[in-house]
Design goal:
- By secondary structure, this protein is α+β, with helices and mostly antiparallel strands.
- 37% of the residues lie in helices and 28% in strands.
- The chain has helices at residues 5-8, 13-22, 60-75, 79-87, 110-132, 143-149, 189-208, 214-220, 228-235, 254-257, 270-287, 333-345, and strands spanning 25-27, 36-41, 48-52, 91-99, 153-155, 162-169, 245-251, 263-268, 289-306, 309-320, 323-331, 348-356, 363-373.
- The longest helix has 23 residues, at 110-132.
Length: 377
């Protein structure tokens, strides 16, 4: 069983205990030696397993190796799969496996590898942002998203194709919450983030398999799944060749699902990334320019010659969709005169027009109304 040697040592006493109980083994809590965990099979009371009660004991891993060997025969499946299920008892795991001729020896060009890691980071970061506030595009990452990103860990991989594993602990194994029968387990926020990524991949796969229409999906997909930012993150992992593929596997913590081995797996090929690219374009084309009304404080005024005409602008400090922004607004001569007076008097202003959000610095053109907000209004 050398193939699982690395992840094998991530198994804890708590994780093997929960795995066995989820799979029909009954623990004897009255066993005299508290340093041992003893189990009998629900289907065959003659079968007994005994495991040290802590991974800190010297004989824990030698005995565990024999136990997994017995489970391999009983469950009739590879030991490596059993180990994966045990190690994801309290964590959700996001796995991306790149299968290509250039990865047959487990190696990959450094530039593509760097893009993959950057894509994974952004995928999680913007999934957190979308879970906080569902919208097609996130223009600024939240402080909470940046802080939570540090909890996601790049995990050990395995032999074969180029693999990236990301783990996030969603259940505290030392203080696992016991929920009464018939009551739902509160869903951890981190688990929702992984579920959103899984939903996003499934949404793309549904379009590729003609189960959903692209334009129809784009209307609501961002509510619980893919966003423009997540599209950009996926595209960083786009394979080099059309014959390559990226297999995505999500393993959910069995302590939350109440069963082991629950996974979602989808092979992403060229068509998947073409759909992702189109989704990103639809999102951006749809909301890059909007008719909006803003209120705020004028930070500065500017007059300059641009294309043989006087260009009069202000920089407005405002709030848009819950985030603070500074927007450059192009005004007519009369509107600029009103803006100068409002700035002099320290008044807020109200402005309506076409807000262009396609670039880093936002600009409002075609202003339809502009007026100061007096204190008695």
């Amino acid at each position: 069983m050398k193939d699982f040697i690395y992840s094998f040592y991530n198994i804890t006493a708590s994780s093997i205990d929960r795995y066995l109980q989820f799979n029909g083994w009954i623990r004897n809590y009255n066993f005299a030696n508290r340093n041992m965990m003893v189990y009998t099979s629900k289907n065959n009371r003659q079968k007994t397993l005994a495991i040290p009660a802590s991974e800190e004991f010297e004989d824990f891993y030698p005995i565990l190796r024999d136990v997994i060997g017995l489970l391999q025969k009983k469950e009739n499946r590879p030991a490596n799969n059993i180990v994966k299920d045990i190690t994801t008892t309290f964590i959700d795991r996001l796995e991306f496996r790149v299968i290509s001729e250039i990865t047959e020896d487990g190696k990959i060009p450094l530039e593509y590898a760097a893009d993959c890691v950057e894509g994974l980071k952004n995928l999680i970061l913007y999934s957190v942002c979308a879970e906080q506030s569902a919208r097609p595009i996130c223009y600024r990452t939240t402080d909470y998203a940046k802080a939570l990103l540090n909890k996601f860990k790049l995990a050990q991989t395995e032999k074969g194709s180029f693999i990236l594993n990301v783990d996030i602990q969603v259940v505290d194994e030392n203080n696992e919450q016991i929920v009464l029968e018939g009551c739902d387990i509160p869903t951890p926020f981190e688990h929702k983030v992984i579920e959103r990524i899984g939903t996003a991949i499934s949404q793309v796969d549904a379009i590729v398999n003609n189960q959903r229409q692209l334009t129809e999906m784009a209307e609501t997909a961002f509510e619980n799944g893919i966003t423009a930012n997540m599209c950009d993150a996926f595209l960083k992992m786009r394979p080099v060749s059309d014959t390559d593929k990226v297999t995505t596997t999500i393993r959910y913590a069995s302590s939350l699902t109440r069963q082991t081995g629950q996974i979602e797996q989808i092979e992403m090929r060229t068509n998947h990334f073409l759909v992702i690219d189109e989704l990103a374009k639809i999102y951006r084309d749809k909301i890059a320019i909007q008719d909006v009304s803003l209120t705020g404080i004028i930070r500065s005024l500017s007059k300059k010659i641009d294309n043989d005409r006087d260009l009069k602008t202000i920089r407005l400090y405002t709030t848009f969709e819950g985030a603070s922004r500074t927007v450059t607004i192009v005004l007519s001569d009369e509107q600029y005169r009103i803006a100068c007076n409002a700035h002099r008097d320290g008044l807020e202003v109200s402005v309506s027009g076409e807000l262009d959000m396609s670039e880093r610095y936002w600009v409002m053109n075609n202003v339809t109304s502009f007026s100061p907000i007096h204190q008695n209004e």
